[in-house]
Design a protein that fits this description.
The protein is α+β, with helices and mostly antiparallel strands and about 260 residues long. Helices cover about 40% and strands about 25% of the residues. Strands 1, 2, 3, 4, 5, 6, 7, 8 and 9 form a nine-stranded antiparallel beta sheet that branches. A hairpin with a 2-residue loop joins strand 3 and strand 4. Helix 2 packs across helix 3, helix 4 packs across helix 5 and helix 8 packs across helix 9. About 35% of the residues are buried.
Length: about 260
């Protein structure tokens, strides 16, 4: 069979007879990886750059030193902000069985970061009974213990709610209230709140805040200033934006991107 040691074609890694297959690939700012799916589940990791991944269940933003777990068969596309150095692990079904059945952003530990980089340097048909096999076993153990992060924007199925969410995302700087949007889409505020909770698991305010946060991450990585991003997303001041950012992600924007 082919030896995809240095291949950057994902197809070469789907049937490698090993529990983990690792690929390194880079993309320029603005690149779009068109909608596709894989036979194996994949852990997509950003060494540098930001990935915005869209799938039927929602949108996920993956900054540097974060990874997205994508189960096998999930149709998705990836948009790139900044130069992206991507490292991908393709996991065989038996290796991915303990992992979530849905996409989720995970915090990458320093140990896993080094392990993933090393894995992309190994031959695809690495000896399973030697150091390389032990390294892959350690990678799998480390992945199972990763912390999930709130970098997912769920997408509703209800037609009215989907329209409302599209309106919000089309103009994130608008400061319309929940009741304003309810009037536009023809639904009562109470029903709107109930729909958000039942379909998306979060309220309107949190959904809009997360939409702004995910957009901010991509814009910051593309080189926009904190001030420009804050004002462009409807915040009254950079300090108000920074306070939200720190509350959601535990640190200021400048430190987070470093």
């Amino acid at each position: 069979m082919p030896q995809p040691t240095r291949s950057t074609d994902a197809l070469d890694f789907q049937s490698v007879p090993r529990p983990v297959a690792a690929m390194a690939k880079s993309f320029e700012d603005g690149h779009l990886i068109a909608a596709h799916r894989h036979d194996r589940g994949q852990l997509v990791y950003a060494v540098t750059g930001v990935m915005t991944i869209d799938a039927a269940a929602g949108t996920w933003v993956v900054p540097p030193d974060r990874a997205l777990w994508i189960p096998a068969g999930v149709l998705h596309e990836i948009r790139v902000s900044g130069r992206l150095d991507m490292r991908t692990l393709y996991l065989r079904d038996d290796a991915s069985a303990p992992l979530p059945h849905d996409c989720v952003v995970l915090a990458v530990t320093p140990l896993l970061r080094e392990l993933v980089v090393r894995a992309t340097q190994l031959p695809a048909l690495y000896p399973e009974d030697g150091p390389a096999g032990s390294l892959m076993d350690l990678i799998l153990a480390e992945i199972r213990g990763l912390q999930a992060l709130p970098l997912h924007l769920p997408i509703p199925r209800d037609r009215r709610l989907a329209r409302l969410c599209d309106l919000v995302r089309a103009d994130l700087a608008a400061n319309r209230t929940r009741d304003d949007y309810a009037t536009v889409v023809g639904i009562s505020p109470r029903s709107l709140s109930r729909l958000f909770r039942s379909e998306l698991g979060i309220g309107f305010s949190m959904w809009r805040r997360r939409a702004r946060l995910l957009t901010a991450l991509a814009r910051l990585q593309s080189g926009e200033s904190v001030t420009a991003v804050a004002l462009g997303l409807g915040y009254e001041s950079p300090s108000a934006f920074t306070a939200m950012f720190k509350r959601e992600l535990g640190m200021r924007p400048s430190r987070y991107l470093k």
